[in-house]
Amino acid sequence: MHPFVFFSLALCSLSIASFAEATKTLRGFSVDLIHRDSPLSPFYNPSLTPSERIRNAALRSISRFNRVAHTLDENKSPETILIPENGEHLVRFHIGTPPVERLAIADTGSNLIWVQCSPCANCFPQDTPLFEPLKSSTFNALSCGSQPCLYFPPHQRLCGNAGECIYGYGYLEKSITGGLLGTETINLGSKVENQTVNFPNSVFGCGLYNNLSFPTSDKVTGLVGLGPGPLSLVSQIGDKIGYKFSYCLLPFTSNSTSKLRFGSEATITGNGVVSTPLIINPNFPTFYFLNLESITIGQKVLQTGQTVGNVIIDSGTMLTYIDQTFYPNFVASLQEALSVEATQDLPFPFNFCFPYRKILAFPDIAFQFTGARVSLNPKNLLFRVEYRNMLCLAVVPSNLSGISIFGSIAQIDFQVEYDLQGKKVSFAPADCTKI
Q1: What is the CATH number of the domain that holds 357?
Q2: Is the pLDDT of residue 77 over 60?
């Protein structure tokens, strides 16, 4: 029996409605983007040292990378990374009528908006009540013939006994998650001219079966997908926001929140703005791809030899991953430029570390994307591991042939704008505490 069939009978009492498009245009708005390890996060553990937080984030990056690798495995069917190990960044939003607050992962590597719902056949623990769709006056179930349901490939959808759309995802490590596809009013909790930003008839996943093979947290109750797929938040409200969003990421030790901006507020202008083509791979519509032509370290220019999208830009992966055939030259050039001796006894999971010392003259290090040179600072590349008194590189080798990942640490103190309609990503250096 299919793993989702057994709970479909519980869905028969939920009504069926057609997909409705939003029409009203907004000038722009923003919401708080909370790093999961910041003092403002419910995940924050004051007993952890900075080095322990760094190590935990690095371990989450490995788990995230493994999921990306599984998704990009050409021998597998495309999958959505639906539950990215509690995520790196969180947002609060409200769903339903009357509105219910949810804390969710904000993820540029996922496409679906989803929350855990009642009646739940199997849900992971959360410290707030499950969302009850039957108590919301604005909830509607979608039929298995509706367009949003058909966005799922055949092996990821079922038709329930009452004709409702049931989605399901499976993972390499035997985690599965699924539920009912429906529409609801979503409120992102910001103000536009003193008006609450509501998005009626937003398609979302009402999670009714979430069997995870890894531990999760009772703080997170769902996910807001910011990917390029048609069911992501950005795509669904795209006509209202000009298909634009941006963020400016703070270090996770900051006592402030980063901002996730939409519409006109997302546009970055002024000196220092550079743009590169945004590539959407139809075979892997979960991710945003760029093309990395070279990396400059001091006077050396290391060519990647790639002419198509070879790097994923991802807010949910802390570390930056470089193609393993390219990585040794990168490390050797960096070691030469810094004049340092590599440490042999490396703290897991890092690949290159050296004894801590103040770097008086940091070389110019830049990632050259097509049309956009992005110069990085030490904070974008190095961590201090205090208990070992060393600096470790926040760049590790990728075992995905021809694919790298430009992670969130590399993006700290940059405004990063995604323009899906203009098909470009723009960067501008900034003090994100002032943006």
Answers
A1: 2.40.70.10
A2: no
| Residues annotated as part of the active site | 107, 314
217 and 332 assigned to the same domain: no
- Whole-prediction pTM: 0.89
Query: In angstroms, rounded to a whole number, what is the distance separating the alpha carbons of residues 106 and 114?
Result: 11
CA distance 280 to 67: 19
pLDDT digits (tens, 9 = 90+) for 301-342: 999 987 789 999 998 889 999 998 899 999 999 999 999 999
- Rounded Cα distance, 12 and 15, in Å: 8
Q: List the one residue out of 213, 226, 196, 272 whose CA is nearest residue 420.
A: 226
Residue 375 one-letter amino acid: S
Both 216 and 309 in one domain: the answer is no
- Residue 147 has what pLDDT? 97
Which two tokens mark 204? 């979302």
Q: How many CB atoms lie within 10 A of CB 125?
A: 8
Among 211, 240, 262, the domain-final residue is 262
SS3 state at 337 = helix
Query: Tokens standing for 234?
Result: 């950005």
130 or 60: which leads in pLDDT: 130
- Same-domain pairing of 353 and 213: no
Give the pLDDT band (50/70/90) at residue 135: very high
Q: Where are the beta strands (DSSP E) in 256-352?
A: 258-263, 274-277, 289-290, 292-297, 300-303, 311-313, 320-323
Q: Coil, helix or strand for 407?
A: coil
Q: What is d(CA 281, CA 265) in angstroms, rounded to the nearest whole number?
A: 27
Question: Contact at 8 Å (CB) between 113 and 186?
Answer: yes
Residue of 410, 376, 432, 379 lying closest to 250 (CA atoms): 432
First-residue to last-residue Cα distance in the chain: 52
Identify the residue whose tokens are 């790196």: 88
